[in-house]
TrEMBL record:
GO terms for molecular function: DNA-directed DNA polymerase activity; metal ion binding. PROSITE patterns: UMUC. This is DNA polymerase eta. InterPro entries: DNA/RNA_pol_sf, DNA_pol_Y-fam_lit_finger_sf, DNA_pol_Y-fam_little_finger, DNA_polymerase_eta, Rev_trsase/Diguanyl_cyclase, UmuC. It comes from Urochloa decumbens.
Amino acid sequence: MPVARPEPQEPRVIAHVDMDCFYVQVEQRRNPALRGQPTAVVQYNDWKGGGLIAVSYEARSFGVKRSMRGDEAKRVCPGINLVQVPVARGKADLNLYRSAGSEVVAILASKGKCERASIDEVYLDLTDAAKQMLLQSPPDSPEEIFMEAAKSNILGLPSDASEKEKNVRAWLCRPDADYEDKLLACGAIIVAQLRVRVLEETQFTCSAGIAHNKMLAKLVSGMHKPAQQTVVPSSSVQDFLASLPVKKMKQLGGKLGSSLQDDLGVETIGDLLSFTEEKLQEQYGVNTGTWLWKIARGISGEEVEDRLLPKSHGCGKTFPGPKALKNSASVKGWLDQLCEELSERIQSDLNQNKRIAQTLTLHARASKANERDSTKKFPSKSCPLRYGTGKIQEDAMKLFESGLHDFLESQNTGWSITSLSVTASKIFDIPSGTSSILRYIKGPSSAASQAIPDFSSVPEDPSLDNNVYATPIHEEKCEPSTSENEDGERYSDISAKQCPTSEEKRISKKLPEVKGTSSILKFLSRGQSALHEKRKSDGLICSPQGPGSSSEANKAEEHNVAAQRADRSNINSGTEPSASNAWMFNVEDIDPAVVEELPPEIQREIQGWIRPSKQPSTKRRGSTISSYFPPARS
DNA sequence: ACGGTTGCCACT
DNA sequence: TAGTGGCAA
């Protein structure tokens, strides 16, 4: 449900930039012969010619729609070029489009705060840039207004007049305009410049909306497509919303929008104005009610986030109809493929962006053999994410088994899986300031403190995918000791690799800063626990029993966890490209003995996130796996 | 055989 | 929290 935020006092300049039929443009850049041609991008083509996921404007003029299959598109537009999405590991591979999207983001992020909203959309907060322009070089004569900006569409200005461009030029530099309108005019000029840069540097066209908030910018970015931009002056908001069908508003395209129509008789956003905030709250709850009341008035305080990268990575595939998976072997096969791709993607994210994912989630859709219309859903399951393809595959399969168990509720019926996906989420930046925090987790009394990797030595070179970043655990010294580097800082490990030189620390300054101490320690704790466990299992140290240690009840479970931990310390187990990630383990494993040595305020922080470790486990209450896996049928 | 494959968010 | 549900493109 949407939540209303207070609109900031000061007027903002917000843009929403939307790539035009993006996947098609990416393919047209790869194969310029497709330019100007009716073209669509399809994924797979064995069933009815594949599904369209992007359609060029030439093809749209023939009536080709996104919802069509390839065969249907051919019927409507026999000359259409159908380009297939690349396939890797038996599934659609969108990496080409993802990296093209990144090219665009890199350019758009240059003039202000930039938020990647999807693979082909961004929001920009251009308030500062617009203010600066207004101070230094406000638009003052129609002739000097840059060509692309002059092609803007200004909501509320007569747009079909023969004098359109002249009117727009005049609007952009009206000397008697409100301060707000002047800011928007500057925003329009900046966005026009950015769009030209995008075109010059990537060959991609895009459309944009410029307004005082995200909601309005988004609403109009697609109003004049392709390759055009639209401005929303405050003065035109009311008329615009008055006739806007509710379903066009973001968040109202689904059930909430239908309810507004069916239950309240609201057809346009303007119709909402006749309801009090209280009435809307009564109908839809406090948050949604207030949100509706505000959007009816064009109010949306949502801020543009400063984020250029996605918040999660997911890979999935559907297995429609006869393709449904009906035994665990085929599920495992596909899950392995999905996990391979996911592993590759989070590994690149780590290497290129210095980010680590913490949670692995498995989703599936399933039906039971007997019940043709079983309403029950396959539950999603998640667990801490361990790096390494083999580990992810193992854990994903365990999550699947656990989900299947819950799904079947110990009935002995057959099943079929129609979709599978794995997602890596809760992604954090690796802190740049590790060395200063390192000082807190050290000391001869804490044998567990040795495994903290020094991320300032992470190589910058993105081509070094799968390289070793932390000293492999089995190569580390086991005797605690303390040393000083040339800056006089003390480190808990004398391994040369782990004691950053001045040069390494200089490099580390280029890494992203992290806001709170908590996230830094959270991160460091991963490596700390890993080595500690390794030493325990090697009999090198005695484990100090912490306050949170196990009860009899979960002894069996804990044994399982211990076994898995031992496995983590193994170098190059199975399919691993390298065991370099042995240091990345459970946040919740941090050693209480280490915590005791920290300053009280940091201790307090840490206490909050120490919790019982939960590994993916197959809980089989009184039954075995084989009892609910039906015998494989070919 | 549902447009498939992403991705985001709020709520509990 | 992990899990569900909704929305969007």
